[in-house]
What we know:
The protein folds into three domains: 9-282, 7-stranded beta/alpha barrel (Alpha-Beta Barrel), CATH 3.20.110; 465-491 and 502-517, no CATH class; 529-734, Beta-galactosidase, Chain A, domain 5 (Distorted Sandwich). Strand 24 (675-696) and strand 25 (703-719) form a beta hairpin. The protein is built from 20 helices and 26 strands. By secondary structure, the protein is α+β, with helices and mostly antiparallel strands. Strands 16, 17, 18, 19, 20, 21, 22, 23, 24, 25 and 26 form an eleven-stranded antiparallel sheet that branches.
Amino acid sequence: xxxxxxxxxxxxxxxxxxxxxxxxxxxxxxxxxxxxxxxxxxxxxxxxxxxxxxxxxxxxxxxxxxxxxxxxxxxxxxxxxxxxxxxxxxxxxxxxxxxxxxxxxxxxxxxxxxxxxxxxxxxxxxxxxxxxxxxxxxxxxxxxxxxxxxxxxxxxxxxxxxxxxxxxxxxxxxxxxxxxxxxxxxxxxxxxxxxxxxxxxxxxxxxxxxxxxxxxxxxxxxxxxxxxxxxxxxxxxxxxxxxxxxxxxxxxxxxxxxxxxxxxxxxxxxxxxxxxxxxxxxxxxxxxxxxxxxxxxxxxxxxxxxxxxxxxxxxxxxxxxxxxxxxxxxxxxxxxxxxxxxxxxxxxxxxxxxxxxxxxxxxxxxxxxxxxxxxxxxxxxxxxxxxxxxxxxxxxxxxxxxxxxxxxxxxxxxxxxxxxxxxxxxxxxxxxxxxxxxxxxxxxxxxxxxxxxxxxxxxxxxxxxxxxxxxxxxxxxxxxxxxxxxxxxxxxxxxxxxxxxxxxxxxxxxxxxxxxxxxxxxxxxxxxxxxxxxxxxxxxxxxxxxxxxxxxxxxxxxxxxxxxxxxxxxxxxxxxxxxxxxxxxxxxxxxxxxxxxxxxxxxxxxxxxxxxxxxxxxxxxxxxxxxxxxxxxxxxxxxxxxxxxxxxxxxxxxxxxxxxxxxxxxxxxxxxxxxxxxxxxxxxxxxxxxxxxxxxxxxxxxxxxxxxxxxxxxxxxxxxxxxxxxxxxxxxxxxxxxx
Length: 739
């Protein structure tokens, strides 16, 4: 398909390639084979196709170690001016969420790495998740960046339309001008999901006599082969007869008028279309996910309806939530973020010249678990654990400079989570315990410094907007299955499409009836959650949150007192509460004290509970202490375990479920983490354990994911008026025995 030689247009393609810090090595390799390598080979087969490529630092590090020959081939394409390499934050941080010094350092580090590896200085950069705030131009320009790319929705929010976006605009904030392109949603949703000829036809219709227009498509490189059903579609059975080669061939055949042009080259050759000041935003799906669950569901439905009705004049003004609201929606994200800020201060104060400390800090700023949407986000337990691993590593290096090898402990009451209420932060050379006195006196972070692992980085089962979508899908599936069974025949098959469906618009499930696993927690999954449970409650009902608390201690304020001596720290948490009784009898007052002792220079904690019935009559109840811990135990991982003294478990994996009576000693751990935790109880208890599983989305569909394990000690109590009951729990952390 050709047009007259007097009309022409530019096509700017930018492929963003990224793997999270801490992702499984086999995932890196699989995506390399499915997407990164085939795309490189396709570019080598089609030298007439020119484009921009972005590889994040975490991916470049892996490629350098495992496939240096791949980078040499990319360098050859750069040398031949077929490929332009684009910069960004080295470990793909959400730039507005990290300190300003780190913004500059991360961009400069990737720019320098590209210069050293490929011999050119990049002029543009990729913005992680296209999260934009109006003060970014100043930092980008200071870091040496001349241009970047955002979604077209950023531009449409201020009133521009598609026909206004065939170029770039200039913006600034107390700085010189930054050039900003808009990636076309129409192209992102047709490449590669629709026939290649459709894109060629679109370009043909937009070509002009002046030939100065550019249409831009910037999107994930992984969708060319790694997303569901895309590999055979994009690459064909022989690796070079699929959609991509068809598209690249068409681009080369029409190169007389359709010019594939790297974005940096276009930015040097053509002036800006005008000035623009872009509001805070991200891509439209991200703003949807940032809303509260019910509002997010409503917003998504409204968007789909407007798209169906082709109401573009209304759609362009649709704005969802603000990215930073993820710090509100998920306490776990906020804890991770505020820990990162605290470590940043420590590193820059005590180890600013320590390259290793800075690298661990920057790795911990990788964006992947600081938000959540259609894909894993904060629910990716192994990545979440890796972020804390690097935070603790950076903290260790900074504190080593600060304290040398001298044993030390410190504590601080401070508004860690920025809600105006103080938390208690206990830090030492052995471990860190972060305690929330206002929410049950619970431990919400427990870092073992030796293994650089946060035991408490468990994810709570939150309500999500896509849960309603999943329910509707499963209800319809069951309805259709029942109808087929009733009719004794299958439904007539519709016409099969050879084009894979986008994961943004398709509901897939990895197993049937996933909606039966949608359980919501009433409180944050932390350690030392104090329960008074109804008689006869089963483990199943406890795990599924189908019970009523008999006491008022969960998520309630505790008085807090700390004493420091030469032997260690003693933290006393206490509450005057009430416990309901069976029948119509009123509640009885109960005084609960939990005292934590942390000996100096030991990976150890002793917890002593004291319960006193302050009522005038007998109290009969069931007292329980809940712990939630994360030890990378999903999928029946043989390295993550429960070991209970004098009990042979049928399933001892850390994600197993069960009830064991008369437990006084047991261990949990993970040999790969080199982390074992032993528990000794002065009063034998019934031990409940179960895997905390969420139903979350991925490119391949909805699935269950292990977020940590809950284990709970239970004691039936009979307390006379004025009587006191105590139990002591010794927690010993150590390397895995025999590992």
